[in-house]
Amino acid sequence: MKSIFTFATLFLSGFLIAQTVTSSDITKQSLEKKSQMMNSSLVKNVEFTNIGPTVMSGRVVDMDVNPNNTTEFYVGYASGGLWYTNNNGTTLTPVLDNAPTQNIGDIAVDWKTGTIWVGTGENNSSRSSYAGIGILKSTDKGETWQNVGLPDSHHVGRILINPNNSDEVIVGAIGHLYSSNEERGIFKTTDGGKTWNKTLFINEDTGIIDVDVAPENFNVMYAASWERERKAWNFVGNGKNSAIYKSTDAGTSWTKIADNSGFPTGDGVGRIGLAVFNANTVYALHDSQYRREAKKKTTAYNLTKEQFENLSSADVLALRNKTLDNYLKEYGFREKFRAENAKQLLRPGGLKPKELMAFLDDEMAIAFEEPVIGAEVFKTTNGGTSWKKTHTEYLDGVNSSYGYYFGEIRVNLEDENSIYVLGIGIIKSKDGGKTFSSISRENIHSDHQALWVNPKKPGHLVEGNDGGLNISYDDGESWIKLNNAAVGQFYSVNVDNEKNYNVYGGLQDNGVWFGPHNAKIDKAWHQSGQNPFKSIMGGDGMHVQVDNRNHNIVYTGYQFGNYYRINLETEENIYIQPKPEKGAKPYRFNWQTPIHLSKHNQDILYLGGNKLHRSLNQGDSWETISDDLTNGGKEGNVAYGTLTSISESPFQFGLIYTGSDDGLIYVSKNGGGNWTKISDNLPKDLWVSRVIASKFKKERVYATLNGYRFDDFTPYVYMSDDYGQTWTNIGNTIPTSSVNVIKEDTENENILYLGTDNGLYVSFNNGTSWNAFSKELPNVAIHDLVIQPTAKDLIVATHGRSLYKTNITAIQKMNDSVLAKPIALFNVDNIKKSKRWGSSRSQWRKASTPEVKIPFYVNVDKKITLDIFSGNVKVNSISITADKGYNEVVYDVSFSKKGLKDFKKANKKSEIEKGNNDVYYLSKGKYTVKIGEEKTSFEVE
Fold first, then answer.
1. pLDDT tens for each residue of 594-604
2. H or E segment at 105?
3. Which of 129, 148, 262, 916 has CA atoms 20 to 30 A from the CA of 609?
4. Which residue has the higher pLDDT, 711 or 311?
5. What is the DSSP letter of 623?
């Protein structure tokens, strides 16, 4: 693929060693292995609870609405699975949780039969667009799923079902995101997915992003090919093989129709979206990466390059961030640079605007040219023989410079001139694209990905974006927000040490939020208008550190190192990104720039760019304590050669480890005075997702490497007991899936928790073997983990299903001696007696019933009986079939019939009243739980 950008030459130390792309056969074997692990896991009965929040949401990629009952539809989230509603989105129910993946590119439903088709693997090409496992099919409304093929397609653009033959299906496959492959193009089945024919293939770097069909004739189809190439350091979303194709035989054969038709051709052709009105009339949304004609006058973005260079630093600092952001985006800095970054470099003692331009020219590897054309709408009325742009003015602001992330257009099938264009905002036209107006409103998130237009009811729209789901009944003049599904895409999570502790987390495109861990996730907050979770930062929310002395002091920020010290009590925000000395080269910051608050002194903060910075005064000032700890950067338009992980040993101040996105791990034993590279014996060039200093052994350190950005999904997990001089691979038994996070237990040094792109694991023997968690926790990407040490809760940050929580008190007790026992009972929490047990607030509500959880371990599958005693009196018994490993019995604190009789006989003065539900509950006192000779106790207080 050839880029039309002019690149500057950058120095790169070292050479990139190509990684091994994971084959679909290995992925298939891995999924089978994980399924077996889940069935035999010692922790398969450890239950997780989703704690939301739902006030924000995650990226929607598609909806499919029942045309005969528009209150019934399915919603596909990029990494959050498939959800169903039959009440117009008032509630949403997940229906893909028992499938091997939650990653979705497109969905299609045959409403006549109820058959659901899911193309797995997100259709966007962003940094967290996870690969899929092919095409999933359900004939029982999501109760069960069958993989019906195309496992190496990775990312699916579109699925079409013949309305007259549900076994005939067309799939547009985009293909691998980070590597070349052959299983991309258009595929057709006529037997319900048993067999597939590849009917259109362009090359190993070009796939199909969109397919649409003439509503009156399934034989007539149009398809959009897309040539794209993504690397960790660069993304090119355009190429000469991006084009439009047509079929007149229901997708069996295809003809390229874009050439010599008036539609753009060549290297500047980007992503294309299609909207077919009828067999001859089609709209195409094109993300043109060709440059605009040079103009001397001020652009619609208020600045030209020449004007910017002639401004003073004070003039630039006075600009609104939005104005400066628009300028930077339009000149090619689609991901790397934001207004805050630029202003930081221009503050007193820093660069001049002209010097900043030179830095951007060189460091960012993009020469300043005129902005790209961006979004443009074309129309054909003769079946693609000729195309004409519908508008004369630029559609400024629709795509900015990253139209690869959007590319959706819709036409009202009852009105040829009514079209909708999705981008950063959403615009509509009622005159066939000649003029447009915005229908973005105050309660609708930006970055629009999907839209359904009701042809039977004018103005009825169902829309999906990075912030969730919306419905309009007045053509976008106002919107209803339907955020009730926990589908947040978390990057990070942390907790404070309050008695009723709070959870903090940063999300993709939804900022940073915090709230109580036990907040009730329902709609009660609509009454007060106060959601228990509060927003404290916008943008893409990143890492969070909380001062242990004062939980109101929080360090967090958004992408590319834009961090703040926030006082939650006073609402004071202070920008704390380090800036270079005058004349020094500006720093590089990762999308997820790491920060670390020292356990030794909570005034000391570390922040990683390409160098490590340390502040001794809460970020007010910084000292740089390393040289460049990366390979030095790489040519491209995405920040690279940056630190991704920082860890300081709790045993020694200044014993610090760093990891980088280009595979380097360093250690310093003297606070940054000297650094030693310790990654030479590890796989090269992989993203260091975590490097963690042990809390149990000073010499011990863990490292996880992530090959996702090479389509290498091998789980790279390592442990060292000599400061990283030698490493042991402890990831060999984990099913194939890229690793994001490793976490030591807070009490048991043999226990490790591990988060991958496809689930969560635990090891009881320092990684020799692993067990999969699965109960109420779907196969979703796990990005971060934190343990609240007092409550003994494990909080799991997923990138697609928000936050989960489970109590690990019993797990922490599962040491070698316990695991060697036939049976082991763990501690049971006490419970407070309540007069409300067995009663209800009204005759219309269910009775309140108490419960205590009785956790235990058995070393083989067996039937067991738990006996509950008050002294020598057996008050109840519970018999179950226990699984090998951890088990849990929920006891409702009641007497059995015989137990009540025996208890009264032994306690003649006791008065036990029957509940309104005709159940007798235990009186206050101490009780013993026994399984054979094993016993534990609890108290009704």
1. 999 999 999 99
2. strand 104-110
3. 129
4. 711
5. E
- The helix/strand/coil state of 416 is strand
Rg (Cα) of the chain, in Å, rounded?
29
Structure token pair of residue 853: 């959880």
Alpha-carbon dihedral sign for residues 50, 56, 61, 64? positive
At residue 310, the pLDDT reads 74
Q: Give me the helix-helix angle, 321-330 and 339-346, nearest 10°.
A: 100
Mapped onto helix, strand or coil, the DSSP state of residue 811 is helix
Helix axes of 353-363 and 339-346: crossing angle, nearest 10 degrees: 130
- CA–CA gap between residue 570 and residue 357 (Å, rounded): 37
Residue appearing with tokens 């600009």: 319
Q: What torsion, rounded to 10 degrees, do the Cα atoms 123, 129, 131, 136 define?
A: -50
Which phi and psi angles does 340 have, rounded to 5°?
-60, -40
Rounded to whole angstroms, the Cα distance separating 119 from 464 reads 17
Tell me which residue has tokens 């010599």: 260
Tell me: the pLDDT tens digits for 35-62? 999 999 999 999 999 999 999 999 999 9
Tell me which residue has tokens 């993009």. 366
* Rounded Cα–Cα distance for residues 317 and 312 (Å): 9
Counting every residue written for the chain, the total comes to: 941
> How deeply is 835 buried, as exposed, middle or buried, from its count of CB atoms within 10 A (0-12, 13-18, 19+)?
exposed
**Segment 802-821 mean pLDDT:** 97
Cis upstream peptide for 215 (omega within 30°): no
Residue 810: closest CA among 777, 858, 860: 858
Residue predicted with more confidence, 313 or 669: 669
Decide if 65 contacts 96 (C-beta within 8 A).
no
Amino acid at 674: N
The 10 Å Cβ neighbour count of residue 69 is 11
Query: What pTM value is reported for the model?
Result: 0.93
**Sign, CA torsion 508/462/383/184:** positive
Please name the residues in contact with 314: beta carbons below 8 A apart, sequence gap of 6 or more.
Answer: none
How far apart are alpha carbons 82 and 627 in whole angstroms? 47
Average pLDDT over residues 756-769: 98
Task: Give dist(CA 136, CA 143) in Å, integer.
Answer: 12
Please answer whether residues 435 and 441 qualify as being in contact, where contact means their C-beta atoms are separated by less than 8 angstroms.
no
Tokens 């929310």 label which residue?
Answer: 541
What are the DSSP calls for 724-781, one per residue?
Answer: TSS-EE--TTSPS--EEEEEE-SS-TT-EEEEETTEEEEESSTTSS-EE--TT--S--
CA distances in angstroms from 624 to 525, 591, 639, 673, 692, listed in the order given: 46, 20, 20, 11, 21
Distances (CA, A) of 365 to 125, 221, 233, 240, 544: 21, 40, 11, 22, 31
Sign of CA pseudo-dihedral 888, 892, 893, 898:
negative
CA distance 330 to 401: 6
Residue among 411, 485, 402 nearest 446 (CA):
402
Contacts 24+ apart (CB under 8 A), 4-7: 4/238, 4/267, 4/268, 4/289, 4/290, 4/291, 5/236, 5/332, 5/366, 5/367, 5/637, 6/366, 6/367, 6/369, 7/365, 7/366, 7/367, 7/635
Given a contact cutoff of 8 angstroms between Cβ atoms, the answer to whether 576 and 617 are in contact is: no
Could you identify the residue written with the tokens 């390229």?
256
Give the count of alpha carbons within 13 A of 917, CB side only. 20
